């Protein structure tokens, strides 16, 4: 803890000296606030990428493994967890644009031979869009335990989840309620693989990560990449650096803060932009909260106003417009991304600890950075107390 206390003390003293001199810049305030987030959440390591008015800055704290005295960098490898779902939703839109599939196609169209997707409500099947918006009626997880010694994000594999679905489990009708579903996104990835007639990771590289130069965003890290993987901790076991393709659509992606920054610039229409129509489809709100009987597992970073394809919409406040966000966690890491479409503003942050109370603090304080970024981008004077 000494390293954290010392860092925060230095940051506070520097900030105080700038305030006294009337010279505290926006950049210095952002650095101070990011250091405060690290202190308040207290993980072994934290990396943050901030997009402000289109420009990227990085902040990193702690050490990549306990006691190694090595600071993380923008190229330190991490697990983005459920942010994999947003990558999957972008791939879904790209494949739809190419005519390989339709957003409202029933999942049954892409089921393996002999497998049947239950239809709870006649004429209202599970569709790719309902899977992407967590309104398919599928549960968060399938019943049962992973095999002993299974690494994070390696179970259930494709055969296991389809066997479960083919047994006609009790589901709710699509579009009636929202239930965060990991298995739903794994089935969505299976459908995209069937529609695209190529392995999922190959489709992702060809359509999303490759064109953006996201060389470290993968489910199959090589030896050199594994050497850069930070050490996770907390209530969810870290596990080995291994192939996590089994959960590629749900949470199996590895990445770096640098890759996430490149992706945010793409999503915010700063560089390597999609056609406006594609971006609109991917970042649209498809269901509003009041249209649903209930929402479960989607209010972690703030009460959801509505749901997109993986994205959760946060209500506007006095200080900020509507934001879209995605949380991710597992395998010793927790990550968060929040964007303000149309403002070229966004934040990605990842910590090497799984702790839900800590994560609540992380998302709340990260969200509180957005008004500061927006005020500075609009040329407004930002007071040191903001």
Automatic annotation (TrEMBL):
EC number: 3.4.-.-
Sections of the chain in a coiled coil: none
Entries under InterPro entries matching the protein: Beta-lactam-related, Beta-lactam/transpept-like, Beta-lactamase-like_AB/R
Main enzyme class: hydrolase
Keywords for this protein: Carboxypeptidase, Hydrolase, Protease, Signal
Annotated Pfam families: Beta-lactamase
Chain ranges of the Beta-lactamase-related domain: 43-355
Signal peptide positions on this chain: 1-21
Molecular function (Gene Ontology), one example: carboxypeptidase activity
NCBIfam families membership: PRK10662.1 (NF007943)
Family to which this protein belongs: Belongs to the beta-lactamase family.
Protein name per UniProt: D-alanyl-D-alanine-carboxypeptidase/endopeptidase AmpH
Gene from which the chain derives: ampH_1
């Amino acid at each position: 803890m000494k390293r954290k206390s010392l860092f925060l003390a230095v940051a506070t003293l520097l900030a105080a000296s700038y305030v006294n001199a009337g010279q505290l810049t926006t950049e210095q305030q952002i650095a101070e606030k990011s250091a405060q987030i690290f202190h308040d959440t207290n993980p072994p390591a934290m990396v943050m990428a901030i997009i402000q008015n289109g420009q990227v800055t990085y902040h990193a704290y702690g050490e990549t493994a306990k006691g190694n005295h090595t600071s993380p960098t923008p190229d330190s490898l991490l697990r983005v967890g459920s942010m994999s779902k947003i990558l999957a939703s972008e791939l879904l839109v790209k494949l739809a644009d190419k005519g390989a599939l339709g957003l409202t196609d029933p999942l049954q169209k892409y089921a393996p031979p002999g497998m049947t997707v239950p239809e709870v409500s006649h004429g209202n099947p599970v569709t790719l869009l309902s899977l992407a918006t967590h309104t398919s009626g599928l549960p968060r997880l399938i019943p049962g335990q992973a095999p002993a010694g299974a690494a994070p994000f390696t179970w259930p594999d494709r055969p296991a989840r389809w066997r479960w679905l083919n047994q006609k489990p009790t589901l709710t009708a699509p579009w009636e309620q929202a239930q965060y579903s990991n298995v739903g996104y794994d089935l969505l990835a299976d459908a995209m693989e069937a529609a695209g007639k190529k392995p999922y990771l190959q489709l992702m590289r060809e359509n999303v990560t490759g064109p953006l130069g996201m060389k470290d965003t993968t489910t199959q890290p090589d030896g050199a990449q594994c050497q850069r993987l930070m050490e996770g901790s907390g209530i969810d076991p870290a596990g080995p650096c291994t192939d996590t393709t089994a959960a590629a659509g749900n949470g199996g992606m590895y990445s770096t803060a640098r890759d996430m920054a490149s992706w945010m610039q793409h999503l915010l229409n700063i560089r390597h932009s999609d056609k406006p129509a594609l971006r609109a489809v991917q970042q649209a709100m498809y269901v509003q909260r009041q249209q649903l009987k209930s929402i479960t597992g989607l209010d972690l970073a703030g009460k959801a106003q509505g749901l997109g394809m993986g994205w959760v919409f946060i209500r506007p406040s006095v200080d900020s417009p509507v934001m879209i966000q995605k949380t991710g966690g597992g395998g010793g890491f927790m990550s968060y991304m929040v964007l303000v479409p149309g403002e070229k503003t966004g934040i990605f942050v990842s910590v090497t600890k799984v702790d839900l109370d800590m994560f609540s603090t992380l998302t709340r304080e990260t969200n509180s950075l957005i008004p500061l970024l927006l005020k500075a981008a609009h040329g407004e004077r930002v007071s040191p107390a903001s």
